[in-house]
Structures are given as structure tokens and as C-alpha cells.
Amino acid sequence: MTPPALTHVSMTEHGSVVRIVINNEKEHNAFDSLLIAELTRVLKALYDSEQCETIVFSTVGRCFSIGASLNWMKEASTLDDADNYKSSRELADLLQLIQNMPQTTIAKVQGAAFGGAIGILCCMDIVLASKRVNFCFREVKSGLVPATIAPYVIGCIGSKKTKKLFQTAEIFSCEQAFQYGIVDMICESLEDIDRQCDLTLSQLAECAPNAKRISKRLVLDLKTIPPSSVLDYTAQLLAKVRVSDEAQLRLKA
């Protein structure tokens, strides 16, 4: 796959693994309209790829991301209502896209993750973070609200903790983020993050590609399927998958 021309995002392929690196170090990898547009373009290009099974996200610099750029927020506040909404919707659409990517998504986190960056982590399948990472939903200190990330944060850590963290803008540790469910593994160092990522990639490589995708979709679908339909949905899905070529090949191995 030929990656599109990009300014702050790079994409490299290694077999079934695609690595996406955000490099806006001068702005502490803050999100603005350009970065959101570039990430969206890359992910849409990968969405239907059968070759790509795993996407690894990382950033360049001392921190993962400080979230939304305050300059971008200031500029958006001067727009007319239609363009202001469009600007907010672009971030909301990116978050939804990340959560719904059929591939396994992994994030490698260092330094700090604030605001919208935590929202992105809540959309990921696997988050590996250095033990020194600090987290904070800082929006209310600027008179803003973490609206677009709220559904994903609530889905990840629950409404009770979300209400507290959104209103206090308190800094919390990697250990707390692990307890909340934002982080899946605490790593001793950046080198340890790389080692754990390689181990996770090895584990994923042993699993059937279509089964991984369907299992991920299953979890997402069960959030919205009416309880009365769950039994039929899950039974039909298992019946369909176990007669697939992929399952038959592995069951006979």
C-alpha cells in the first residue's frame, strides 16, 4: 500500500503490521484539524485492507499527546456555527473510526496523555504505557468540556470515575490509569514498551486473522444489540464462523 502524502503522520508496513507514528513534537503532538485529517485519511485507507491485521500507534517526543491544541480550539471558537460544528465533528468521527477499525489496535504511550489523547486510548484495543506517564482531562480548566471523547471514556472506565475526573481535572498516574482500565500494561521503560509490543504482536500472529476481526466486532456489537436478541446473535455467529474455511482448516490441524 502506498501511504498518502502526510505532514505529521507517517505509516510503515511490516508484513501484517502497520505502524503509524505521529510527529508534531514542537506542539507536543497536540491534535488540530491537519493532524485529525491526516490520521483519518490513513485509517480510512487501511480500513478495508485484508493484509493489515494490526495497527501500532506511537508518537515522537517526550509525551504521547497533550490532546487538542488550544490554538485550534481558539480558532474554532471564531468560526460560524456550521464550521464550528464541522470542526468538532471531525474529531468525533476520528474517534469512532479508531474504535471501529477491524484490525487490532495497539498504542505505545510515553510521558503524558491529556484530554483527547486519553479518549483515543480508550478507543484502542491494547494500551502499553510507561510507568511514568501522567494522565489528565484538563478541558474544564480552559472552560471547555471533553464532549467528543466522553462516550469512549465512559465505556472504558464507567460514568462514576468519569464524572470525577472530568470535573476535577486532576492528574492521575499510570497505575491509576491501569486500575481504571485505560492502560492494559505498565512498562518499566520505553525499551520495555517495545519488548512488550513485540510480545503482543507475536501472540496476535498466532491467531486466525478473520477470527480476530469477528471477535472484536462481536464485543462492539454486544454494546448495542437488544438483550432479547443476544442469544440468537451469538449462536448464529458461532454457527457461521465454525463452518468457515479458516475455522475448518485450524480445527483439522
From TrEMBL:
Show the Gene3D superfamilies listed in the entry: 2-enoyl-CoA Hydratase, Chain A, domain 1 (3.90.226.10), Lyase 2-enoyl-coa Hydratase, Chain A, domain 2 (1.10.12.10)
Q: Where is the signal peptide?
A: none
Q: Which GO terms describe its biological process?
A: isoprenoid catabolic process
Top-level lineage group: Bacteria
Fetch the InterPro entries from UniProt. Answer: ClpP/crotonase-like_dom_sf (IPR029045), Enoyl-CoA_hydra/iso (IPR001753), Enoyl-CoA_hydra_C (IPR014748), Enoyl-CoA_Hydratase/Isomerase (IPR051683)
A Pfam family per the record: ECH_1
Q: Which GO terms describe its molecular function?
A: catalytic activity
**Family, similarity comment:** Belongs to the enoyl-CoA hydratase/isomerase family.
User: This protein is called what?
Assistant: Gamma-carboxygeranoyl-CoA hydratase
Where does this protein come from, organism-wise?
Answer: Pseudoalteromonas luteoviolacea CPMOR-1
